[in-house]
Amino acid sequence: MTQRIHLIRHGQPACRPQAALSRQDYRCWVEAYDAAGIMDWPPNSLVKWLESAGIDKVISSSLPRASESARALLKSDRVYSDPLFNEAAITIPTIPLRMNSSAWTAIGRITWLCGAPADEDITAFRLRARAATEKLMQSEGADETALIGHGWMNRMIGHNLRKRGFQIQYRSYNGYWSRTTLVR
């Protein structure tokens, strides 16, 4: 039996990057980002592909930008949302500077990858990503499963799937609405 898992990144969040943020301002921006839905619609090519792909099961992260993306893609509410698939928390480093939100995020990710304390450290995130991978692989009765998720989580799940014998069948660009299909 062939199993396909499609990892799709959410649409563009309805939270614009901001300039000249203090550490506290950035913390508030992250909260707004995590609460934001999406501000764009999926490309027609992705919608048409999803309609014709024979997807048995669609799962999304429980963060609004992913669950809204799933509903926009499917044009229905037949989506199972699970916080197991949520994005990795962003570390907010203690830096007495004002920077734009993109710079804060980049520095936060780098310090997180280097082991800086966070709500969820890199080790805990890797363990959660392994559990998420297992859950996708064990989708009962589903030969075709789609996850509407996030950049870091999708990347880690893809890595875990390849370690378990899946091969990349298709990979689009890495931006919003990107898709990677893995098959075994």
Write the layout of secondary structure elements.
Blueprint: E1 4-9, H1 23-35, H2 44-52, E2 57-60, H3 64-74, E3 80-81, H4 101-113, H5 122-137, E4 144-149, H6 151-163, E5 167-171, E6 179-183
Helix pairs in contact: 5-6
The end-to-end distance, rounded to whole angstroms, is 8 Å
Radius of gyration: 17 Å
How many H/I helices? Answer: 6
Q: Beta-strand percentage?
A: 15-25%
- Placed side by side, the strands forming the largest sheet appear as 3-2-4-1-6-5
Query: What is the makeup of the main sheet?
Result: 6 strands, mixed
CATH topology call: Rossmann fold
Provide the domain count.
1
Shape: globular
Instruction: Give the ordered list of helices and strands.
Output: EHHEHEHHEHEE
Helix content: 40-55%
CATH H-level name... which superfamily?
A: Phosphoglycerate mutase-like
DSSP, total strands: 6
CATH class categorisation: Alpha Beta
Secondary-structure-derived class:
alpha/beta
Q: Output mean pLDDT.
A: 93
Uncertain residue ranges: none
Describe the structure.
Strand 2 (57-60), helix 3 (64-74) and strand 3 form a beta-alpha-beta unit. The protein has 184 residues and is α/β, with parallel strands linked by helices. It has helices at residues 23-35, 44-52, 64-74, 101-113, 122-137, 151-163; strands at 4-9, 57-60, 80-81, 144-149, 167-171, 179-183. It has a six-stranded mixed sheet. The chain starts with a strand and ends with a strand. The chain has six helices and six strands. It has one domain: Phosphoglycerate mutase-like (Rossmann fold, 3-Layer(aba) Sandwich). 41% of the residues lie in helices and 15% in strands.
